[in-house]
Recover the amino acids of this structure.
């Protein structure tokens, strides 16, 4: 048994950590946080040069052709560094959707551009409040054009193209939904940036007005493709969450070692130690669930739906837990804009919602466990 | 990343599987499989006898204490082979409960500190289950603070004379031998005046009194020592070096991987799958699903944490510190799970008789046994201290009694 990443994959993680610690220090994250840039363009260029954007894209489409385990270790580092770049929307959502369902021409057009950093992609799924559900999709297609509104769309304001979930039927079944690919620079789409709790990852409203669109995958296959995309992205985002959780835990630990009160390091008080021990427990459970998700993702195992939901829930909890208690360990300083704690808190809570919220994934997990049990 | 055995591991697994299939007491398999925390018993059989017979059978065929050297009754197996054995032994592993302390703690301590002749004499019957051992550390005045123990050992010629009291001694009532931590010098700081021995539990002056637990069962005992004589040859380690010896014992306590910790989750999931609430099946209720999902990811998180440790063993590495979370997580989880299983039954959840209660009272038994799991073998608080100090590197507690002679340490709180 080898339930661990290989030495090569660990080396890739180290390389990503080194690159990000140099190219994406907290100061760089703050440039985007403070609204001075929509995302970190230099970082994006660097990620492309490092080969990270195309790590799981086959070589024939301009990628490195490594695989999803490699993408997992990079995702962990992206989360750890709070990278202010459209990595998850472009790589986990748009690229995965094209890899799963794209035509040869679509792959040839978009995947090399993703790998080289020329194109930012996203998934336009939500239409206001609510979790992923075929019923919630109203945006309609007629004669190769789309009309309707999507929000929130992650990185929608900086994206070059979007995979859009569209209603093409009215039978009440999953097969009412189809996916379309829209070139957002070709006209017919109004883009509005939306204020959100984590400004280091933009959110937007996209209004489609007779926007030209091409189908991605067969008509009626949209929901089935989306489910696969969401499962894959759940594992990858979970690695980002584990990276963030670990960093928040480290920040709390370091502060507890340095900060003196009542004549001793606050980390010697059991109330603080036990809080940090519990954060370690959450982060460890999440990491182990993520490893299982990574295995299922990389082998395309039939266990993926269950493993993805477990990783998603566990990592969401861990990041939220570690981020909020990191502030608590820091006391008043943790609640200042100056300290970085709130950046992790913001990211933890934003990323907890993006693919569907915790309650949605809890529901999914139980459904999937029941299905396995019944089988 | 894969879950596959190496060819060697696969061969070992096949051999173990075949032997277990041909030799295990299959008539008890179903009952053992269904048994859970607070309830491991066999109808129409004495579980201690069944356990001893199974252990002896394993020992005779070379399947006992696999990781011990052959000359001491083991098999000389690698750590990963031991894990594979535990996986294959499955429900029959629950019969090893009475040997855990002897095999997991007393044996390794003897191996590290007893003389060669003693090892050859005492370890094989310990491995085979013919002799059962217990661990006599905790005292009324020394639980989490075990170094605060007061049982005296005083030198008298070639012997030591023991007087005092131990408590929470698992299995003392059926044990043949024990390892005993005593105070030999009360005039120095508490960690510096301790000495370890092993003794025959049938020695004159040893009195074992079972403790009736909050759950109604009696797994633990008080053990009283009145002028008990132990020859100096049964001393383990140097005089006044007992604290270091005990660290060997306690380190081994935490080395149990692979056997898996009881969380109660599989039982609860099964229960919710069949339970009907007023509005329909429990498993379709949103609140129930949310609770189940939260426990599901804890249970799977523990499972895959232990897989990571096993993976390290398979590569010949030492498992990382992540394995220290198991007891802490499972202990309170099993308690919460049991509480919730009763909650789902409304007022009827209070009934615990097998004829009235759901799943024959399994969850009620689990509820009543659970508080003990959060205390025994290191309380939740001690486990958190261990994680904080040894894994995260946070400072130890300020120990105000560290440099005080033991006999000057206060013994009462409010005067």
């Amino acid at each position: 048994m080898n339930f661990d990443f290989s030495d090569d994959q660990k080396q890739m993680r180290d390389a990503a950590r080194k690159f990000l610690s140099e190219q994406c220090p907290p100061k760089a994250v703050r440039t985007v946080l403070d609204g001075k840039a929509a995302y970190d363009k230099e970082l994006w260029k660097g990620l492309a040069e490092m080969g990270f954007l195309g790590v799981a894209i086959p070589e024939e489409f301009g990628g490195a052709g490594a695989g999803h385990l490699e993408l997992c270790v990079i995702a962990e580092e992206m989360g750890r560094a709070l990278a202010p770049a459209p990595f998850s929307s472009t790589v986990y959502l748009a690229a995965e959707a094209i890899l799963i369902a794209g035509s040869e021409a679509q792959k040839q057009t978009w995947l090399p551009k993703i790998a080289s950093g020329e194109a930012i992609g996203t998934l336009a799924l939500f239409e206001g409040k609510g979790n992923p559900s075929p019923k919630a999709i109203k945006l309609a297609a007629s004669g190769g054009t789309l009309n309707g509104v999507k929000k929130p769309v992650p990185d929608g304001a900086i994206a070059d193209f979007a995979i859009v979930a569209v209603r093409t039927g009215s039978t009440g079944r999953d097969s009412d939904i189809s996916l379309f690919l829209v070139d957002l620079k070709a006209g017919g789409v109004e883009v509005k940036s939306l204020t959100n709790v984590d400004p280091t990852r933009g959110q937007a409203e996209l209004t489609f007005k007779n926007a030209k669109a091409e189908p991605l995958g067969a008509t009626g296959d949209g929901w089935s493709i989306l489910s696969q995309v969401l499962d894959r992205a759940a594992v990858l985002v979970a690695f980002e969450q584990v990276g963030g959780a670990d960093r928040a835990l480290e920040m709390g630990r370091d502060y507890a070692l340095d900060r003196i009160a009542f004549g001793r390091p606050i980390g010697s008080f059991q109330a603080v130690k036990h809080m940090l021990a519990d954060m370690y427990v959450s982060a460890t459970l999440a990491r182990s669930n993520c490893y299982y998700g990574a295995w299922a993702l990389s082998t395309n195992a039939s266990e993926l739906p269950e493993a993805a939901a477990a990783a998603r829930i566990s990592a969401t909890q861990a990041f939220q837990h570690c981020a909020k208690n990191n502030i608590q360990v820091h006391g008043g300083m943790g609640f200042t804009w100056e300290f970085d704690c709130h950046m992790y808190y913001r990211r933890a809570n934003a990323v907890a919602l993006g693919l569907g919220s915790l309650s949605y994934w809890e529901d999914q997990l139980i459904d999937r466990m029941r299905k396995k049990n019944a089988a | 990343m894969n879950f596959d055995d190496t060819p060697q591991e696969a061969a070992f697994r096949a051999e173990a599987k075949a032997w277990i299939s041909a030799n295990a007491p299959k008539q008890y398999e179903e009952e053992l499989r269904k048994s859970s925390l607070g309830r491991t018993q066999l109808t129409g059989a004495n579980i201690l006898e069944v356990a001893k017979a199974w252990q002896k059978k394993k020992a005779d065929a070379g399947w006992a204490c696999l990781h011990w050297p052959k000359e001491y009754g083991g098999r000389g197996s690698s750590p990963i082979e031991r894990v594979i054995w535990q996986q294959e032994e499955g429900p029959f592993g629950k019969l090893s409960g009475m040997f855990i302390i002897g095999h997991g703690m007393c044996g390794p301590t003897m191996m590290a500190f007893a003389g060669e002749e003693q090892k050859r004499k005492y370890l094989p019957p310990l491995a085979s289950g013919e002799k059962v051992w217990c661990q006599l550390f905790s005292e009324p005045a020394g639980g989490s603070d075990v170094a605060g123990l007061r049982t005296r050992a005083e030198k008298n010629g070639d012997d030591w004379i023991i007087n005092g009291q131990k408590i929470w001694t698992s299995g003392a009532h059926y044990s043949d031998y024990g390892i005993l931590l005593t105070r030999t010098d009360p005039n120095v700081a508490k960690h510096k005046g301790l000495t370890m021995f092993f003794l025959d539990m049938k020695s004159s002056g040893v009195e074992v009194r079972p403790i009736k637990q909050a759950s109604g069962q009696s797994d633990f005992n008080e053990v009283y020592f009145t002028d008990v004589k132990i020859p100096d040859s049964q001393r383990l380690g140097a005089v006044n070096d007992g604290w270091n010896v005990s660290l060997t014992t306690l380190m081994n306590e935490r080395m149990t991987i692979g056997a898996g910790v009881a969380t109660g989750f599989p039982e609860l999931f099964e229960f919710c799958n069949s339970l009907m609430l007023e509005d329909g099946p429990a498993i379709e209720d949103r609140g129930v699903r949310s609770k189940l999902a939260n426990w599901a990811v804890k249970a799977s998180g523990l499972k895959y944490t232990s897989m990571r440790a096993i993976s390290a063993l398979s590569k010949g590495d030492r498992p990382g510190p992540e394995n220290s979370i198991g007891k802490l997580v499972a202990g309170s989880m099993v308690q919460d799970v049991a509480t919730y299983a009763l909650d789902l039954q409304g007022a009827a959840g209070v009934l615990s008789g097998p004829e009235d209660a759901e799943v024959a009272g399994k969850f009620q038994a689990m509820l009543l046994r659970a508080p003990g799991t959060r205390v025994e073998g290191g309380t939740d608080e001690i486990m958190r201290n261990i994680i904080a100090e040894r894994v995260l590197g946070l400072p130890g507690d300020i120990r105000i009694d560290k440099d005080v002679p033991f006999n000057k340490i206060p013994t009462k709180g409010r005067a």
Notes: Chain A has a mean pLDDT of 97. The beta strands of chain A are 121-124, 140-142, 145-154, 161-167, 177-183, 189-194, 203-212, 214-216, 260-261, 264-265. Chain A touches chain B through 50 residues (CB under 8 Å).
